[in-house]
Amino acid sequence: MPDMATEQKSFKFKVVLLGEGCVGKSSLVLRFVENKFSSRHLSTIQASFQSKTINIDDCKAELHIWDTAGQEKYHALGPIYYRGSNGVLLVFDITDRRSFEKVKNWVLEIKTCLGKSAEILIVGNKTDLEDERKIARQDAEAYAETEGAIYMETSAQDNIGISEAFEALTAKMLDRARTAPT
Ligand code: GDP
């Protein structure tokens, strides 16, 4: 009998976190990689680079996740941060209008630094604070669509939507990698 098992294809992707300080970037990574949450501001204590492998369909995707480590506050994200990125998680806080307005600046920066070479997932974080919501989901969705990005919402605190967000971004990166000319 022939062996019907299909061989798993392996991919490596660089994913960068972007967005204003305190929106929960490091918390999303900590929840995704270690399934932990801390009420402290993590940027200064969290490692700036982590990896996690996920399986989608017949593919194994090794994600190399770069966190800003607080440097976004000083506009100090140099070209090395962006170089070779396959995907961007652009995070804002649904209770903080300013963090959403700044998303437009981050999109401009992504387009300047990466052109169209990376998939963008815009994430509205802190959905556990629904009572304090300042940005309607449909407004964020409509904006993301104009930029050719996906929009998803998460709560790092309550572990809602995190693996779904990373999986959706990975699925887009896989689609692109599988259809890229060799
Ligand atoms: P960063 O500067 O964007 O990396 O943000 P951090 O991950 O350090 O989070 C900033 C603050 O927001 C910390 O006090 C976190 O505990 C808090 N935080 C992060 N995610 C959530 C969330 O989903 N819900 C709530 N309520 N707080 C969160």
From TrEMBL:
An annotated GO cellular component: endomembrane system
Gene Ontology molecular function: GTP binding; GTPase activity
Matching InterPro entries: P-loop_NTPase (IPR027417), Rab21 (IPR041833), Small_GTP-bd (IPR005225), Small_GTPase (IPR001806)
Taxonomy, superkingdom: Eukaryota
BP GO annotations: protein transport; Rab protein signal transduction
Pfam families referenced in this protein's UniProt entry, alphabetically: Ras
Bilayer topology: Lipid-anchor
Chain segments annotated as coiled-coil in the UniProt record: none
Subcellular location: Endomembrane system
Keywords: GTP-binding, Lipoprotein, Membrane, Nucleotide-binding, Prenylation, Protein transport, Transport
PANTHER family, sorted: PTHR47978
UniProt-listed NCBIfam families: small_GTP (TIGR00231)
Family note: Belongs to the small GTPase superfamily. Rab family.
Protein name in UniProt: Ras-related protein Rab-21
